[in-house]
Design goal:
Distance between the termini: 71 Å
Shape: globular
Radius of gyration: 29 Å
Number of helices: 27
Strand order of the largest sheet: 2-1-3-4
Number of strands: 12
Structural class: alpha/beta
Helix content: 40-55%
Length: 619
Amino acid sequence: MSREILLIEPNYKNKYPPMGLMKISTYYKNLGDKVTFFKGDLKDLVLRDTFEMLKEQLYANDDTVFWEMYQPQICQYLKKGTESFLDDVPLYNSNPLIQELFHYYRKFFFHKDYFNPKFRKYDRVGITTLFTFYWDITIETINFAKQLCKDPNGVMVGGVMASILPERVEKATGIRPHEGTLHTPGELDEGNDMIIDTLPLDYSILEEIDYEYPANNAYFAYMTRGCVNKCKFCAVPKLEPEYMEYLPVSEQVHTVEQKYGAKRDLLLLDNNVLASCRFNDIIEDIKRAGFSKDDTYISPNLYEIAIANLRSGQNDRGYIRSCVKQFKLLLQKAKGENAHIIYDLLKKNHLLEYHTAKKDVLLKTYEDFKPYFKDFYSNKPKKRYVDFNQGIDARLITEENMKKLAEIPVRPVRIAFDHWNLHEVYENAVRTAVNAGHKNLSNYILYNFEDKPLELYWRLKLNVELCEELDASIYSFPMKYHPIENPEFFSNRDYIGDKWNRKFIRTIQAILNSTKGKVGKGKEFFYKAFGATDDEYIKLLYMPEAMIIYRFYFEEIGMTDKWWSEYSQLTDDEKGIINPIIEANDFSNIETQTDNPRVLNVLQYYKITREEAEREMKK
């Protein structure tokens, strides 16, 4: 007998889909179980399930009404209990049995009877976790979702946060999470020999949700696991303690392409691929997957894929939604008489909305819609790219492995630059990569850990100078360190490193907001954003925030120069008073912090808010 499986990703924003849940979905579907994936407000999930229970009873009483047509009104009634939502629902005012059903399920939803063990739907519930600063929403999700499972032992919690803080997750939820990856047989069902971590990803579950991941046209995979380094700031040793040198990906890519359609790019989340003794095998397997230097991508016909998967029963809910999504896009693109024909055909068959579309109708009307999708998708070949998204280790870069890497379309080559002590190694690595033909580079620059604020500036400046000298493009992504195991910072990102302070952190964030989080090529732009010298950079660190965000306005009216002149005229003793106040970045009660009139005069500049600056700029 098949089981009902519910897989949940908490309702936070994230770039990549949950690979662990996608593998678990493949596992359960291989066993013949029914899988539901959900990301969103869990009250919407139980509302949907409540409607499904009510709908079954409504059809049992009267199957002449197309009850799905009224799902939005019925769900509003179930949520709020306002009977006027049912004014247009057939039989509600004329059939006492129908009316009683509505009243019963309204009480069912209002009293949260879906938590009652005798009404629980799911045999297994799996919840993934991500970063610790999503602590609150993740714990809330687990505590809600565990009440939907028939058996407490059927609740599974895993992922990054769960693996790093298993004891704390257990204390907050009563669920002992799984730590690390699912890399041994029998972890979810005793006696089953499938290794879940090696299974292909089930991309179909992403069709079930409204949320669209920013990286949504790529194959996601690992070709190695773990890392040979044990960096103090990194969680990988806990998440993936064993280094695995080679996990072939080509077979998985071909399986995914056959089932779900081709993806444009290959996004690899390896933590240290260059540490593998089988690096050459990794590159050759990537080429077999269809990612050689000159390989291209043609957009697949997603309508045909959806219909094929409906026929095979791969994921009815997901591919019904996919079809309706394609219809909506088709309507936007269609013109003239075709637009009217398509709209009328969709309306006639109730295919304009997810909740009214039916599998049998989609299959029956396939031949009607097929011609309209013939030229809907672009047949123009597009360049494919490979992205080792977690970066590669500068210390392991050689001429040989960079030449091998050039056999595949890597873009960008991401090289970590975690601290200034590595600058000579890093610079040599960049030069080696560029000499091998890699002109598009990127790097992650960790700050707020054990580095000094100036060391962030030096690293960024080095990249800008290398861009100009080597005629390359290097995009830097400064990343603020967050101590993921510190209980004081579970639900926020307020941690300040020993050599940093709140004002300096805010300055960097303000500058990065204007550059959209990255720093690219161009000396002139960099010098304006971060300063041309160490002293100019330090001046920016102490500059009032509004003057950083609205740099050109305040410079034009002369206020920036005025602030700097008055600050510079302070004596060393007065700077000893004002600097700690500025660094604390709290200017709400400056009069209580000093009675020095010259210091107070300078501090007035820091009380200018963004809102005040915006009002002045509009005048």
